[in-house]
Write a structure and sequence with these properties.
about 350 residues, alpha+beta, Beta Polymerase, domain 2, Methane Monooxygenase Hydroxylase, Chain G, domain 1, 2 domains, seven-stranded mixed β-sheet
Amino acid sequence: MRRPNFGAEQSVPTSIGPLDPFDPRDLLPAPGLISAFKFDELGQSELWQADKALDLSPGEGWVWAHFNLSDARAHQWFTERPELTRQSQEVLTTHDEHAYLRDDGSCLTGMVADLVRNVQGSTEEIGYLHFALSDRLLITARRHPLQGADATRSAVENGMRMATPGELFSAIIANSADGFDELVDRLTINLDRIEDRVLMEKLMDERQRLSRARHTAVRLQRPLASLRRTLRRVRSPAQVASITNFDPGSIMQELEMLEGDLATFQDRARLLQDEINLKVASQTNRQLFVLSVLTALFVPATLITGLFGMNVGGMPFTESPDGFWWGLLVSLLSSLFVCLLLVKAGAIRRQSGS
């Protein structure tokens, strides 16, 4: 019977080949996908199944897919989709962000400004929603959570019906406009409070608060004005509506209302800024006047005490036991004399009455 040779070297694997780490994102229907919905002809939505690859051409109905551009793999996925036009791929993969719209005859693409959201709600930060819109497909993508897309997604999850991709995109813009309206309302309320404190002569940090509010309004006004100008350059609003079921005119009305509210806010803020500057200047003048009066009152006393401090002979009251009190009396009388001269000249009366 042959015995095993335990002393001989045996071929034993000393290392295990590298294993690919598990990434939960690999289980998504598409890289970077946040949510996807398939809509039927009646506008009823169905959440895309997590174990089913995302199909941008489902046959019947149409699709809305919402992506997170922070996932770098989503960029490669977009470029590999033959269903997307080159213009759509460019807008969904670009790193530049500014408001614009483009129409190639079959698809409307671009970016729209929106408010960034956090766990507390919408913030004052501006983000951009990338989108590609056709008659049977809407793809939206963002780098940060945005007010309009998140609000619309929640509404769709709760059963809101959307007949066409254009109608859904209009809902996103409307929700985005609602977020801007709420921010403008908050800015207006803040402006009212600043105005009340200014009228009550209770100036503290109102200048800084007003400057921050004006800066926020300017940051809102720029992308809105850019988008409105872009909508005016759309080749043919009627043709765009017939292809994508999206009417740019509805967005134009929303933007014009928002710009009007922001323009009114800016006008009020400028007037309030001028009033604050006048009040601050008036307060500074009063303080300078008080300082000037005090200086004028103490100059004679300072001069007299300086003269009495000269270490020379012949100074009055040097031999008197009450010399200090006589010197103090002379100083007070000199200051009183100067005060009477100022009153007679009307300087104090005019300043106190102004």
